[in-house]
Amino acid sequence: MGFTLVLGGARSGKSRYAQTMAEAAAQDCCTRPIAIVTAQVYDEEMAQRVALHKHDRGDAWETVEAPLDLCGAINGLKSGDVAVIDCMTLWLTNILLAEADFAVEIDRLLASLKASPAMIWIVSNEVGWGIVPDNALARRFRDEAGRLNQKLAEASEQAVLVVAGMKLDLARV
């Protein structure tokens, strides 16, 4: 069916935009929207962030936790499903910390997305606009996130950038 990539910085409104679009599509399809979440909770601050996102979605949403096996969650979607994957940079962090092979995992992800019959919005942070990080791990993460976003954008049906709660449609160059 294709997917939409929703990019933006921290607190840009990208998750809210993806949720709004998925809720409207789910209502049209008479189905319950699915949130595929990639966060892992390691401290109280992250627990509060997860709780806030869950509260913002409300009880109408089904939640699937997929911090590492994102492909399994995507492969479980069926025709007529409407889903938001939030977010790719957290998933990438999980893959990095698990010392998995990025290229293999991203290829598997793209294959799952291309094969999925569901309507999907994928949320990802645009992290390359800031200063160059001061350590090798942070630079590697920034570089891998940029490469992942490029591959997702190339494979997407549509890509949008959300800044200050405002959406900008992106075009291929």
Give a short synopsis of this structure.
By secondary structure, this protein is an alpha/beta fold. Helix 2 links the parallel strand 2 (34-37) and strand 3 (62-65).
Structure overview:
This protein starts with a strand and ends with a strand. By secondary structure, it is of the alpha/beta class. The protein is 46% helix and 21% strand. The model has no long low-confidence stretch (mean pLDDT 94). Strands 3-2-4-5-1-6-7 form a seven-stranded mixed beta sheet, sandwiched between helices. 31% of the residues are buried. It has six helices and seven strands, in the order βαβαβαβααβαββ.
Brief descriptors of the model:
globular, 7 strands, seven-stranded mixed sheet, 173 residues, alpha/beta, 46% helix
- The number of strands is 7
Q: Unreliable segments (pLDDT under 50, ≥5 consecutive)?
A: none
Strand content: 15-25%
C-alpha-based Rg, rounded: 15 Å
Distance between the termini: 23 Å
Average pLDDT value?
Answer: 94
The run of helices and strands is EHEHEHEHHEHEE
